[in-house]
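To fix ideas, we now present one chain and its tokenised fold:
***
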Amino acid sequence: MAEIVLNLVIDNLVPLLKEEVNLLKGVHKEFESIKVELELMKPYLKDADERLERGESNDGVKALVKQVRKVSYRIEDVVDEYILQVLTQRSDQRREFIGCLYKAARSIIKCRPRHKIASEIQEIKATIREIHQLRDRYNLQVKEEGSSSKTWHDPRVSFPFLDDDEVVGIESQRAQLKSWMEEDVSSKRRAISVVGEGGLGKTTLVKKVYDDQIAAKEFACHAWITVSQSPPNRKELLMTLMTKFYKTNEESPPSDLETTDESSLIEKLREYLQDKRCVIVFDDVRKIQFCYFIRSVLPNNNKKGKGSRVNITARNNDVATSTKESSFDMIYKLKRLPDDKAWQLFCKSAFQSDCPRELEKVCHEIVKKCNGVPLAIVTIGRLLSNKDKMVSEFQRLHDRLGSELKSNPHLEDVKKIILLSYVDLPYHLRACFLYFGIFPEDYPIRCGRLVRLWIAEGFVKEESGKTLEEIAEEYLKELIHRSLVQMVVQDPLDYKVRKKVGPCKVHDIMREIILSKYEDLVLLANDDSISDDGQFRCLSIHNKTNDNVMINRITKSRIRSGITFMRDELPESFMGTLMANFKLLKVLPKSIGKLRYLLTLDLKQSRVVVLPIEINKLHKLRHLLASNRSPDVIRSESGAVKIQAEGFGCLKDLQVLKSVEANDDGGSLVKELIKLRQLRKLGMKNLKREDGKDLCIAVENMSHLQSLSVEATLFGILDVQQISSPPDSLQRLFLIGHLEKSPDWISKHQNLISIRLVYPRLTEDPLKFLQTLPSLLKLELVRAYDGKFLHFEGGFQKLERLYLSLMPELISVKADTGAPPLLKFANILECPRLEEVAEKIGNIFIF
């Protein structure tokens, strides 16, 4: 955790020292020297964090780690406070002062905070010197990227050796793996990978199948190697394999193995296995490079017919995929236990039979927290088997599971196994993963919102040629591939159309482990067990809490971001205290014009109607989501927010601009769009016909635009005909308003995957100009056509969903042979004269 905090501070200091040289005048060298000291501290901190993870640290190492966190926070605060003062003073200098005496008084007052900051800097440097002394005293070692100390006791060692009557829910998986092992379909080597998150029982499953094959004497030689976080080097691995193979045949390995070079060992291994059928298990593989090495050293053919088997268990889907060389190789994705199997396994572990009736309710709640993870179910069940069978005892463990995971030695194995995936993460992914702890239990977080929050918190590192949003989405996909984060079930077509990961969450046990690692990072407003020592950086409010108690706790903290999940409004007194105390707040703004580092402004359902002109000072703003529509607003209102157009084009980093008015009282915002060339999503309402030319010019210059949504004034004409060369990146198009004719450019676009046309009132069949779109997956036409016949003549080769509504004259929907071939769903609404719909249309719902 300390390494995460330290790296985040360094990452924030580097661009600051480049961009704010003028602001940091006089203290630039001081901050530069502090950055250098922090960089020197990083490799030693890796060792300290590893000792903490292994439970090998003493009070001194813990004190050092805490000191690093505190000094990192102080550096962040001092830098921001200094810049805030400089900006405030520059603003003051623009104002007229009354009299020299007032000026002198102001100068004296300003000197005090500058002197305080200078003192803070000296105290920080002194603290860093103390940390270096502690480092030497406790003999912390340099840890390079990717290196690791000797792996501590692996708690999985005992878990594979469960008796058959203790194993529940793996019968079908066991049968499938056994079938793949025994299939005699080729003389070539077959790789069989089992992939899934920590604690699902991958090792247990493979061990059962492996033992079956050994007992049946299906293989001439065999070996089981646990790879884990610290795999043996290549020569050690080759020597281990050779030794195990000779041992299974009761032979003595060659005496010169240790003195044989790597290439010769590979030659000997391949020669030994050339006419033998072997089975090898590599348990807990984490690196793709390891798989490639194994593929290169093991022979792929058996001269005597039946091929060898290489089994791999992995948490990362990419690792499992790297083992696949042909269709003969197989991957089994292990899933969590369904509810009935999870309950059966828990009852067997906790009671050896059925659950007592009086305990059923609380036990179901405990099993739900385990979320189908067998390791958690078995371990918690065994722990409860030794407790009094009383509701109060079981309820206490349920309510205190987080603290129990942190302190109860009986649950230490669960925590370690699940945390193995976390330990293997690079630091930038660790911060992103831990951030899931701020969300309530079982809370699905949308990808877009999560990405914006990560960026605002400074978790996302810049990479050449990619936006921060693209990088953040790659981070999220990596966490999913590593089985640390799970996607909530979603519509697969929606994923194709949006090209984004759907809502995500972490399961309850994982969340409890995250919270146990938070230490002083996040203050959960509803958690009375947390004692505040003033170091919390994030405030998360899940539900109603005692305002006075909460205010007393948070006024001591240095909160940098705040997030609430309450549907009810927070009391004005509570919010007032938040704003007054958290002057360095990043995510919850106080004065919009002063938030020069604000990245996201989300005003959805906020009832904000007009944004002040100060919005144009937010030069780093990336996302402006401005819909003010709330659930009680009638649908005829646009919900768009007005922005004063003058100077808006200076927000050149803007990626998303949604639900804003095209015009204000003084001018057209559309003219300013020409300067916003980084936009990925654009949504504007109430466009006038005369805005069309400027809009078309702006869109042509937005080379990264992915989504375009524009709406004309009520009963107005939408002029988008003049786009001659739309951006290739455009995938989603949403047009509301009367179109005098079908825009020619739409039918020529190769990459559109979703189109929605509302009230265009076309007189020509729109299917004729849309059918040539090769990538279209989803088509929605609302009052789009005033004719009688729609005809699928061909094309629409990828269309999966069709929505037709409000076509009062429509009589028939026809389709020629083979068109559209992939349509899975059609929804037809409010077409009162409709008489005929082609059978080929698929699953049709007509209302």
